């Protein structure tokens, strides 16, 4: 279709979403879009993808998310699994010795443990996944050079308020310079010790006639373009916070050492020479984070030409003595200055968003950066999709800043405490007030572990999280509550093991149709769908059975929320999927005993055998005890509404149709025939 | 290098191994060769790979094997997992009802359960794996047309006694004809109801000038070319046995039915209309094996044009009544006559071998065919490799027939009993002697399950299996024993939970260096290496510790079997890898406390952190209790020698260097510098 100004609306110059930056945050977002048929472009100023170094730590929660996109297993197989943390401190003679062993992942918080795999592989898995599900291509060596926002179009979510000019760089321009004469890749060009080259790249590209230029109009734009975000600068938003005086070096090496815990994650505090963090990695590599100096007071720039792998190694050797440490192979190295900053705003009119390092910078040692960045766009992705498809009210988009800016603030607080404890000199004794108490450090480490798993995230009350309290206080200050008359509050006492606002923890359940055990989370694929998980209790209890029969009747009625919010012509489970987990005996019930809506019939494929589960003993994998773990009474049951990102929106009575209806009606839009895409 | 007759020995016309047939058996063999750098060609007369139908059942043991090649996880993710078997029989009124539920995989026999995934996907995974590890390409539409064997060269394993002419077919010739007018793929062209087309293909190809022809010389040739094996015919070997009168149809459909157990594996015996086996599959498919008729007495050929999917469905509908059953989508179908036959010989002078359907045919319903076929070449592969590399005496090759022909005989016996019970009419009462007792059927099913898991295989005594008894009696009659003076006998009482001749079962152990839990089997990759697994017991016991210190000293001595049998210039673990699993507390021992040979030092990579394990509690995955499960006394220990296919060769005292030495010396060849390849 060609409009009156001659623009072809279907061509590459009009997109639903323009993503700037193809790091983990940008890739996660493009991945979301690829699953849900959203017209998307993703550009990155760098000409090549990352092959070494950069971020590596992956939280349990990140693995859960990647698994919901069917790429978690690729990470799990290749990654180094982090099992134990060893703390090393000076003894009374100043010699380092192992003082503690701690589980790296708190047992029970997730079905995954924390792992380490470098960013380049994660990006590879995303690229494979995006290709498999769409024709979106990552455009490298392409950067935006101008930005215009037409505020008059901002309220019409079918319109294109964003105009961006894109420059294509020559290969030479798009390839970052390495330090002179070095065979090993270094990451200094991305480090905060290096100057930003974005403006130079834009100028060079404009000078260069070979540079291709085009204009793109977008409904949404997302800046995933790092700590020096070009998008953030266009918006005039700021990162608020400070840098510290600590300079850190990073070495990725295959170590040759007699230090006994080199394959453990270690925090080593020497008496007088600073600290090393040891992160064992895939392919026999070990990453060392080494404190180099605490000079350059006043925030002055360090002369990066003076930092070399040899200097970083020598620092490590002093800290780890009397053990020896050397290497023949260095894979990558870099240096950076710690700073903790958070963006003041995450969005312009819910049309342009910032994510990842563009809105939070901090120390890498807690292994949080790549995770929180990907989780930003994991949070944002399904919200953009549901608005772009016309399924949800745009007010849902406000929850992005409310939820993720609050997380960024928590992260920075955590990182500030953690970095200070890690960078400090160990206290010589209880009277040494300038030193850091190693007991305090251990306590912080253990507490930090829960935070670091990513499973402790608890989103505040909002129109998509039905819980008590002030939406303003529980988030970053943005008002994201439902109108009071529409507000639904969860009945927490029906599922005392669940927390509304947190991701649903996983237990094993058995498929009713074939007795196969599944982790509940494995059923919650990231495909943009909401889920109503009905826990009807023991179905041999006549009362429970009658309750779901009645619920089934209301759900299939012509005006039910399921019917109303599903575009006509689409499958009945395409917007809200209903899963059932009953308790009691699997063999006392047949799937077809349940009302049809719980296992919908399809005229060419028969009954749906993949929606009803049971909390029972498996032949080979034990008993998941999901009712017990979730704190649901099998004689009463409960229902749970899950967001497309597996966070718990609502908990209520198993058959409380009215509250379910009211919850969804607060932000979902009644649908006509499926023609909006 | 060009020899005197002008033949380039490095070119494609001289190969170590020529594989005829690229089904699962041929692919498994090519996969082995790809891992170990053996020059190989693999050809198949069919022009396209299989996309639908064919074999689908995968045993636990097959998954273990595929996992040892790092492709098991791909099967595990895509396959349908088989959890429960439901038996349906007529009640007193002749109406079918569920009489029993049985675990499909006996709990505890393996870390995998049985799964179903069609042959085409397995072949895909092999192709990916072969490509990743070698430049071997599967040559399709290529078939051998002449065979010559120079017996005078058979004893020199560096020479090429085999000469074969290969014809390349045109695309049309290589594409099998489907039944007229059908949109659904059928498998009749591969069925034993169809005539063999190999000779026609050869003739057509020779007539056709476009057909490319070439002559290949090979050290080894393996016929994996199916029940009508062209290779077998060249050798003049025979399949011995009978066909039955039962004709079976197979339908792969997405069923539309109210039969409650359609996603379970079911054996349904109707009172008067025969039997159906239900095999739920991947992608919502269900396979039905349906008994069509028991006519055509005297082995006459059935008119296959009379067999259609509609006829097969109607038979199924009669059996499954009063439940209804229909479909809109049929993926594939075929029909076959059950026959049980075993090859009389599996090898010509240990230079030409037969494997898979070429030496055993039977009913498909027990899901054994693809498994036993792949396991044939899994057994053969490493033996050919070790002889081709000059590491082992060629007598090792004799154990292929001894071990695998015995398995084929066992399989046929199993299948005979199982098919008879399945095909028969249910007995009306205890006086009904022509009918089959459903109790007897259930017992046979349960017993058959152990056999069907593939984990019960127990290879007889031989020069590579050090156990009591007659090698002739325990195998197929071939003499494969060591000379009496060299014979070593295992001390079974040191590991009462292990059976010499069986594959080692798996338990979880923790890595000493990083506390990560691994299944022992995950450490036993199929890379052609033998493994000495030392269980030294509790190393805080001074005596145990001293014993492994002494063992370590002998293992590193200049004349040790490890040193002697490893080519000079190769890594010390390249022929025999030493793994250690100690008992007692992980945290009381450091890896570097153990003698170097147990964690060898590499000058650029430092210590080897991946060879020492401990039987201890993990943080997240429980305690493997490997000493208890293997029946090894932690105060005494034991050592175990494993073949490259994970079968147990020998069990002895932890430090019984002399027996280890004698065992290996019976078939391994002392090495010079590594120049033989």
Describe the structure.
Chains A, B: Belongs to the PheA/TfdB FAD monooxygenase family. Chains A, B: It comes from Aspergillus sclerotialis. Chains A, B: This is Phenol 2-monooxygenase. Chains A, B: Keywords: FAD, Flavoprotein, Monooxygenase, Oxidoreductase. Chains A, B: Pfam families: FAD_binding_3, Phe_hydrox_dim. 2 copies of one chain form a homodimer. In chain A, helix 2 packs across helix 3, helix 9 packs antiparallel against helix 10 and helix 10 packs antiparallel against helix 11. The first copy, chain A, is globular, with a radius of gyration of 26 Å. In chain A, the strands form 5 sheets. In chain A, strands 5, 6, 11, 13, 14, 15, 16, 17 and 20 form a 9-stranded mixed β-sheet that branches. In chain A, strands 1, 2, 8, 9, 10, 12, 18 and 19 form an 8-stranded mixed β-sheet that branches. A 7-stranded mixed β-sheet of chain A has the order 22-21-27-24-23-28-29, covered by helices on one side. The first copy, chain A, is built from 16 helices and 29 strands. The longest helix of chain A is centred in the middle third of the chain and has 26 residues. The first copy, chain A, folds into 2 domains: 439 residues, FAD/NAD(P)-binding domain; 178 residues, Phenol hydroxylase, C-terminal dimerisation domain (Glutaredoxin). By secondary structure, chain A is of the alpha/beta class. Chain A starts with 13 loop residues before the first strand and ends in a 12-residue tail after the last helix. The interface between A and B is large, with 43 and 43 residues.
């Amino acid at each position: 279709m060609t409009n009156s100004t001659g623009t072809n609306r279907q061509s590459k110059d009009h997109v639903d979403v323009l993503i700037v930056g193809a790091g983990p945050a940008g890739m996660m977002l493009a991945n979301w879009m690829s699953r849900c048929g959203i017209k998307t472009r993703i550009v990155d100023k760098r000409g090549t993808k990352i092959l070494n170094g950069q971020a590596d730590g992956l939280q349990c929660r990140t693995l859960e998310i990647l698994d919901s996109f069917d790429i978690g297993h690729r990470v799990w197989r290749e990654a180094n699994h982090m099992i134990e943390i060893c703390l090393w401190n000076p003894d009374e003679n100043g010699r380092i010795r192992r003082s503690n062993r701690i589980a790296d992942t708190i047992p029970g918080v997730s079905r995954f443990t924390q792992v380490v795999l470098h960013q380049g592989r994660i990006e590879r898995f995303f690229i494979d996944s995006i290709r498999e599900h769409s024709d979106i291509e990552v455009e490298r060596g392409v950067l935006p050079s101008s930005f215009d926002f037409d505020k008059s179009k901002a309220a019409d979510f079918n319109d294109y308020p964003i105009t961006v000019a894109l420059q294509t760089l020559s290969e030479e321009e798009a390839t970052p310079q390495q330090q002179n004469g070095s065979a090993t890749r270094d990451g200094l060009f991305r480090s905060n010790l290096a100057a930003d080259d974005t403006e130079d790249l834009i100028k060079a590209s404009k000078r260069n006639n070979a540079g291709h230029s085009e204009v793109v109009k977008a409904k949404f734009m997302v800046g995933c373009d790092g700590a020096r975000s070009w998008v953030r600068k266009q918006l005039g938003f700021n990162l608020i916070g400070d840098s510290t005086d600590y300079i850190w070096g990073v070495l990725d090496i295959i170590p040759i050492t007699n230090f006994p815990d080199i394959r453990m994650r270690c925090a080593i505090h020497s008496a007088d020479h600073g600290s090393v963090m040891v992160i064992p990695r895939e392919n026999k590599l070990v990453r060392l984070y080494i404190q180099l100096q605490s000079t350059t007071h006043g925030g002055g720039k360090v002369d990066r030409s003076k930092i070399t792998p040899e200097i970083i190694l020598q620092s490590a050797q002093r800290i780890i003595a009397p053990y020896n440490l050397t290497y023949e192979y260095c894979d990558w190295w870099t240096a950076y200055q710690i700073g903790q900053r958070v963006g003041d705003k995450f969005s312009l009119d819910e049309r342009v968003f910032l994510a990842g390092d563009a809105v939070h910078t901090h120390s890498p040692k807690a292994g949080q950066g790549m995770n929180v960045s990907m989780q930003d766009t994991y949070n944002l992705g399904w919200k953009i999709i549901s608005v772009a498809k016309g399924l949800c009210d745009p007010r849902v988009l406000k929850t992005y800043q409310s939820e993720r800016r609050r997380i960024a603030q928590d992260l920075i607080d955590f990182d500030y405490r953690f970095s200070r404890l890690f960078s400090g000199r160990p206290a010589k004794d209880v009277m040494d007030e300038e030193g850091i108490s190693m007991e305090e450090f251990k306590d912080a480490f253990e507490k930090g572990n829960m935070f670091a798993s990513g499973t402790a995230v608890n989103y505040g009350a909002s129109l998509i999280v039905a819980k008590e309290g002030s939406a303003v206080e529980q988030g970053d200050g943005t008002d994201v509550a439902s109108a009071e008359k529409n507000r639904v509050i969860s009945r927490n006492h029906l599922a005392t093991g669940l927390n509304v606002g947190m991701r649903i923890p996983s237990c094993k359940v058995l498929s009713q149709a074939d007795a196969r055990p599944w982790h509940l989370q494995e059923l919650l694929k990231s495909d943009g769908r909401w889920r109503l998980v009905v826990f009807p209790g023991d179905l041999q209890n006549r009362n429970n059975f009658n309750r779901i029969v009645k619920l089934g009747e209301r759900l299939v009625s012509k005006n039910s929320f399921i019917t109303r919010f599903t575009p006509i012509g689409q499958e009945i489970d395409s917007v809200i999927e209903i899963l059932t987990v009953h308790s009691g005996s699997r063999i006392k019930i047949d799937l077809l005993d349940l009302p049809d809506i719980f296992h919908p019939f399809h005229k060419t494929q028969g009954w749906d055998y993949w929606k009803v589960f049971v909390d029972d003993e498996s032949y080979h994998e034990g008993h998941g005890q999901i009712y017990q773990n979730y704190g649901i009474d099998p004689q009463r049951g409960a229902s749970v509404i899950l967001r497309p990102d597996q966070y718990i929106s609502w908990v209520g009575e198993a058959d409380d149709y009215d509250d379910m209806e009211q919850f969804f009606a607060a932000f979902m839009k009644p649908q006509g025939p499926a023609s909006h895409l």
